[in-house]
Design brief:
The structure is a single chain. By secondary structure, the chain is an alpha+beta fold. The relative contact order is 0.24. The longest helix has 23 residues. The protein has three helices and ten strands. The strands form two sheets. Strands 4-3-6-1-9 form a five-stranded antiparallel β-sheet. A four-stranded antiparallel β-sheet has the order 5-2-7-8.
Length: 205
């Protein structure tokens, strides 16, 4: 009987702790991922998808804007140089889909059409300025990745599409300042180039 009581106590403790862990969610506002085989003949396009989980929703009256978040997106090429940056809004419970070929790599600062692989960094926040973020949690996202199949002599390797969640990352003060400052330079020096674009929320690829 004593052993049974201890087992029940252990089970209740695990259930209680597990429930709390799930209820807390992920308090992240900074994400990183990569893109590969972009702008490549015969390869499908990759897509970045961001969701506003509604955590920032308020008690605003019906019909009023409520819980909108902004995604500051920074695109780096494989030489570690920022090529594009922009800021896209996502309403509560909304989803944003960004084409890598069309939205994220077609207007590079250097005009590199051969920009085929690189890094994507995203900061979630409450204002529409990628050069001055006001960070806030609530964004979740995934990215599709274009992979090349095995190299078989005499056969053209096919492309495969995989999808994974964005990686949560630690955002230091120095990193945030560097992203903001570099984005400001890209926008200023580019004179129209170096700015990525945002699709309407109801559009997907």
């Amino acid at each position: 009987m004593k052993k049974l009581g201890l087992s029940l106590l252990f089970t209740l403790a695990v259930t209680f702790l597990g429930g709390n862990a799930f209820a807390q969610g992920r308090n992240s506002f900074y994400y990183v991922t990569y893109f590969s085989n972009a702008n490549t003949v015969g390869a499908p396009d990759a897509v970045l998808r961001l969701i506003n989980d509604g955590d920032a929703s308020t008690s605003a009256a019906t019909g009023q804007s409520n819980g909108t978040l902004y995604a500051s997106i920074y695109i780096f090429d494989d030489g570690q140089a920022m090529q594009e940056c922009c800021n896209c809004s996502i309403s509560a419970d909304g989803m944003l889909s960004e084409s890598v070929n069309i939205n994220l790599t077609s207007n590079t600062l250097t005009g590199r059409e051969e920009n085929t692989r690189g890094v994507v960094k995203i900061i979630g926040g409450t204002n529409a300025d990628p050069t001055n973020n006001v960070r806030l949690t609530g964004l979740r996202g995934t990215m599709t990745h274009i992979q090349v199949g095995p190299n078989v002599p005499g056969i053209i390797s096919p492309f495969f599409v995989t999808e994974s969640s964005l990686a949560n990352a630690n955002l230091s003060t120095v990193e945030q300042q560097d992203l903001q400052m570099t984005c400001g330079f890209v926008i200023t020096l580019g004179s129209g180039y170096g700015v990525c674009s945002c699709t309407p929320e109801d559009q997907d690829f």
